[in-house]
Amino acid sequence: MRIVLVGPPGAGKGTQAAFLAKNLKIPHISTGDLFRANISKGTELGKQAKAFMDAGNLVPDEVTIGMAHDRMTQPDATNGFLLDGFPRNVSQAEALDESLKADGQKLDAVLDLEVPEDEVVKRIAGRRICRNDSSHVFHVTYSKPKTEGVCDVCGGELYQRGDDQEETVRKRLDVYHRETEPIIDHYKAQGLVVTISALGKVNEVTKRAMDALKGDK
């Protein structure tokens, strides 16, 4: 299957992408991984991306699209892939359509993870990270530390990242609504969108997604 995963920040796209890709036996292709891989390998596209990033500028669509196309044509993606974080806007979606068409391929589904805006803010603004190890993550509601402000694992101080603060989260949501959400209508016109609720436990959402992709909605 060739799938695009879409949803607002805090919808759990990264977590669900990993589980879905494993269940479907297809590679999980995320924009972040594409950038890191191309930059670390020193590819021509990676050098271009790094130059823009070092200058504090956004990486142009054509560079991102080039990386995505290169990754989608790798041997492990012959039977499909799951795109996470790409396309990010309608122009990228149109370019993806053309790229797949040129390769004699097409998308099978666009999985839309739906989460109420207040829940998104609650999920992200409630996160607390350990200063000693950023992999130690807690939540003021869903995964409280035993002692407030203290990491259960190493005793380090827990803090709220700047981009997790409510004002910043709402700005990120505004960007999502303005730039990314319109791709849902783009794909609805092609009959590709499958919308599921991303509320509940991780395994419940994964099952919901798998059932929807199989047509058991």
From TrEMBL:
<keyword id="KW-0418">Kinase</keyword>
<dbReference type="InterPro" id="IPR027417">
    <property type="entry name" value="P-loop_NTPase"/>
</dbReference>
<feature type="binding site">
    <location>
        <position position="200"/>
    </location>
    <ligand>
        <name>ATP</name>
    </ligand>
</feature>
<dbReference type="InterPro" id="IPR033690">
    <property type="entry name" value="Adenylat_kinase_CS"/>
</dbReference>
<comment type="subunit">
    <text>Monomer.</text>
</comment>
<feature type="binding site">
    <location>
        <position position="92"/>
    </location>
    <ligand>
        <name>AMP</name>
    </ligand>
</feature>
<keyword id="KW-0963">Cytoplasm</keyword>
<dbReference type="InterPro" id="IPR007862">
    <property type="entry name" value="Adenylate_kinase_lid-dom"/>
</dbReference>
<feature type="binding site">
    <location>
        <position position="161"/>
    </location>
    <ligand>
        <name>AMP</name>
    </ligand>
</feature>
<protein>
    <recommendedName>
        <fullName>Adenylate kinase</fullName>
        <ecNumber>2.7.4.3</ecNumber>
    </recommendedName>
</protein>
<feature type="region of interest" description="NMP">
    <location>
        <begin position="30"/>
        <end position="59"/>
    </location>
</feature>
<feature type="domain" description="Adenylate kinase active site lid">
    <location>
        <begin position="127"/>
        <end position="163"/>
    </location>
</feature>
<feature type="binding site">
    <location>
        <begin position="10"/>
        <end position="15"/>
    </location>
    <ligand>
        <name>ATP</name>
    </ligand>
</feature>
<keyword id="KW-0545">Nucleotide biosynthesis</keyword>
<keyword id="KW-0808">Transferase</keyword>
<dbReference type="InterPro" id="IPR006259">
    <property type="entry name" value="Adenyl_kin_sub"/>
</dbReference>
<dbReference type="InterPro" id="IPR000850">
    <property type="entry name" value="Adenylat/UMP-CMP_kin"/>
</dbReference>
<comment type="similarity">
    <text>Belongs to the adenylate kinase family.</text>
</comment>
<feature type="binding site">
    <location>
        <position position="127"/>
    </location>
    <ligand>
        <name>ATP</name>
    </ligand>
</feature>
<feature type="binding site">
    <location>
        <begin position="85"/>
        <end position="88"/>
    </location>
    <ligand>
        <name>AMP</name>
    </ligand>
</feature>
<feature type="binding site">
    <location>
        <position position="36"/>
    </location>
    <ligand>
        <name>AMP</name>
    </ligand>
</feature>
<dbReference type="GO" id="GO:0004017">
    <property type="term" value="F:AMP kinase activity"/>
</dbReference>
<feature type="binding site">
    <location>
        <position position="31"/>
    </location>
    <ligand>
        <name>AMP</name>
    </ligand>
</feature>
<keyword id="KW-0067">ATP-binding</keyword>
<dbReference type="Pfam" id="PF05191">
    <property type="entry name" value="ADK_lid"/>
</dbReference>
<comment type="pathway">
    <text>Purine metabolism; AMP biosynthesis via salvage pathway; AMP from ADP: step 1/1.</text>
</comment>
<feature type="binding site">
    <location>
        <begin position="137"/>
        <end position="138"/>
    </location>
    <ligand>
        <name>ATP</name>
    </ligand>
</feature>
<keyword id="KW-0547">Nucleotide-binding</keyword>
<feature type="binding site">
    <location>
        <begin position="57"/>
        <end position="59"/>
    </location>
    <ligand>
        <name>AMP</name>
    </ligand>
</feature>
<feature type="binding site">
    <location>
        <position position="172"/>
    </location>
    <ligand>
        <name>AMP</name>
    </ligand>
</feature>
<comment type="function">
    <text>Catalyzes the reversible transfer of the terminal phosphate group between ATP and AMP. Plays an important role in cellular energy homeostasis and in adenine nucleotide metabolism.</text>
</comment>
<dbReference type="Pfam" id="PF00406">
    <property type="entry name" value="ADK"/>
</dbReference>
